[in-house]
Amino acid sequence: MKLATYTNGNSEPKLGVVQGDIIIDLEHLGQKTNITFPNSMLELIDAGQQEVDRIANQLKNAADNALAACSIPVDEVTLLAPIPRPRKNIIGIGLNYTEHVAESARTLDTSNELPQKPIIFSKPPTSVTGTNSEIILNPQLTRQLDWEVELAVVIGKKGKYVKPEDAMDYVFGYTIINDISARDCRRSGQWIVSKGQDTFAPMGPFLITKDEIEDPHNLNLSLTVNGVEKQNSNTKFMLFNINALIEDLSTVFTLDPGDIIATGTPAGVGAGRDPQEWLQHGDVVEGIIEGFGTLRNTVKSL
């Protein structure tokens, strides 16, 4: 199922199911069918896969006129991040593609040796923004604004000491995230100032439930700046796959429903280019994962 969080005019955030170029509003559908559905993405995640299945069954059996009354074209709404305000920090994974390790070692102060354990950092909930929104460039903080397209994993149930063979049982779904990074804002090797500024976690446009993705370890992902391709790779090249990440992270701390794991970016970031390239005011950045849509954002300088 393809899910969206959106607003329509001045409405509060709504939860909808995306089918083609329309969104079916679940609250409105509930009013038509006398069935109560979750009002937010986090509420749906808490309810679990059985609630996703129940919604799918209701959509399948609903009368055409009821669905039509609850539908609105996607291009007539404002899409928010699927989880506009996560309960906890986004969990970031650094240096999780071999070629990105190499390019970072050439131009940043990172090791050229492949990590033996996942490199973990975080991004605050206030860094989240949706598609078609602005990425804020604050020249007082950075002159080196960079892009990083990534597959984001959304956790569906609480997990501690999860075995890798069981890891996919803890996944609710997936979305796109752009791990925006201010390369000149790292402090003594710590990354949160570089990666945690407001709007530095564009996410979306949709959340895809795990049952829709045959193999999350074989997805093409790419990124363009002003229509020029900068990154192009596949999730099969992760150093630590999703199973390994969930095992490692759940050993360190408890994973909760709604937690978001940004699984790392492939090569092609601005810092790794010769000469280096940085995002500027007015640049349009588009992150793409096959079947997920396009996460599009514009850079705005303060």
Write a brief structural summary.
The chain has helices at residues 26-33, 41-47, 49-61, 64-69, 98-107, 192-195, 242-252, and strands spanning 2-7, 14-19, 22-25, 71-73, 78-79, 90-94, 119-123, 128-129, 133-137, 145-146, 149-155, 171-178, 181-182, 201-209, 220-225, 228-234, 260-262, 284-289, 293-301. With 302 residues, it is of the alpha+beta class.
Question: How many H/I helices?
Answer: 7
Main sheet?
A: 12 strands, mixed
Order of H and E elements: EEEHHHHEEEHEEEEEEEHEEEHEEE
Compute the number of strand runs. Answer: 19
Rounded mean pLDDT is 95
Distance between the amino and carboxyl termini: 38 Å
Pick out the low-confidence regions: none
Specify Rg, calculated over alpha carbons. 19 Å
How is this structure best described in words?
The strands form three sheets. Strands 1, 2, 3, 4, 5, 6, 7, 8, 11, 12, 14 and 17 form a twelve-stranded mixed beta sheet that branches. This protein has a five-stranded mixed beta sheet with strand order 9-19-18-15-16, with no helix packed on it. With 302 residues, the chain is an alpha+beta fold. It is built from seven helices and 19 strands. It is globular.
How are the elements arranged and paired?
Blueprint: E1 2-7, E2 14-19, E3 22-25, H1 26-33, H2 41-47, H3 49-61, H4 64-69, E4 71-73, E5 78-79, E6 90-94, H5 98-107, E7 119-123, E8 128-129, E9 133-137, E10 145-146, E11 149-155, E12 171-178, E13 181-182, H6 192-195, E14 201-209, E15 220-225, E16 228-234, H7 242-252, E17 260-262, E18 284-289, E19 293-301
Parallel strand pairs: 6-17, 8-14, 9-19
Antiparallel strand pairs: 1-2, 1-5, 1-14, 2-3, 3-4, 6-7, 10-13, 11-12, 11-17, 12-14, 15-16, 15-18, 18-19
